[in-house]
Every structure is written in structure tokens, then in C-alpha cells.
């Protein structure tokens, strides 16, 4: 569940920003800004179809910031929406789904 308001996306548990999302300089290729988890403490990722449904839910909205679960876990970037999709694609690929429909999204 997320809340969209005035160009801001408030995220919490299944859709969470990760430390590498707070900077973009000199990041290795394949580094995510967000993670999509069924259980964060147990490191259980969401399945690709659920991640794709999450993208379809936020795709119609324009946003330039995400606000995470904890104070200071905010990402403000004009390309943050692109980073969300990129992170989703990286996670789905790394879960072994090289031909999933999410990978065709732009």
C-alpha cells in the first residue's frame, strides 16, 4: 500500500527504499533504489506478478519523491519514478524471471 499526494509517494513495508537509493553517483550497474518484499525481516521477496501489479498501480501517477518508513528515508529526484521501475526490473530479473512482462514496461 502506498499513498500518492501532490507528487509525493509515501511508501512503507512491501515497497521500501534501500540505502543504495539515497545516492546515484558511481553506483554499480544493477543496483536498486527500492526493494519489494513480502517479508523484510525474513528477506522474502514479492513474486514478479505482484511487483508488476504494483507498477500498474503507481504508473498513472507523476511523482518526484518517495517518503519511506523512517525519518530521513526520503528520495527526492525528478527521475524517482524511473528508479522505481528500474528497481522492479532488476529484482524480477535477479529472481530468475528473464521473460516476465514487467521487463517490457517503459
What is the number of domains? 1
Quote the beta fraction. Answer: 15-25%
Structural classification: alpha+beta
Low-pLDDT windows of residues: none
Q: The biggest beta sheet, please? A: 4 strands, mixed
The whole-angstrom Rg is 13 Å
Average pLDDT over all residues: 93
The CA-CA distance between the termini, in Å, is 22 Å
Summed up, the helix count is 2
Shape: globular
The succession of helices and strands, N to C, reads EEEEEHEEH
- Please state how the strands of the largest beta sheet are arranged side by side: 1-2-6-7
Oligomer: single chain
What is the number of strand segments?
7
List keywords for this structure.
alpha+beta; three-stranded antiparallel β-sheet; 2 helices; globular
Could you characterize what this model shows?
It is a single chain. The protein is of the alpha+beta class and 106 residues long. It has one domain (3-104). 25% of the residues lie in helices and 22% in strands. The strands form two sheets. It has a four-stranded mixed beta sheet with strand order 1-2-6-7, with no helix packed on it. Strand 4 (34-39) and strand 5 form a beta hairpin. The chain is globular and about 35 Å long. The model has no long low-confidence stretch (mean pLDDT 93).
Explain the layout of strands and helices.
Elements lengths: L2 E3 L2 E3 L4 E3 L16 E6 L4 E2 L2 H11 L6 E3 L6 E3 L3 H15 L12
Parallel strand pairs: 2-6
Antiparallel strand pairs: 1-2, 3-4, 4-5, 6-7
Helix pairs in contact: 1-2
Amino acid at each position: 500500500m502506498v499513498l500518492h499526494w501532490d507528487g509525493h509517494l509515501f511508501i512503507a513495508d512491501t515497497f521500501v527504499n534501500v540505502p543504495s537509493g539515497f545516492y546515484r553517483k558511481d553506483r554499480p550497474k544493477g543496483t536498486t533504489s527500492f526493494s519489494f518484499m513480502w517479508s523484510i525481516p525474513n528477506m522474502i521477496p514479492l513474486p514478479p506478478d505482484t511487483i508488476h501489479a504494483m507498477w500498474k498501480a503507481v504508473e498513472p501517477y507523476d511523482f518526484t519523491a518517495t517518503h519511506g518508513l523512517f525519518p530521513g528515508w526520503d528520495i527526492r529526484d525528478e527521475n524517482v519514478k524511473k528508479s522505481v521501475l528500474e528497481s522492479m526490473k532488476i529484482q524480477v530479473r535477479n529472481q530468475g524471471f528473464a521473460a516476465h512482462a514487467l521487463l517490457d514496461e517503459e
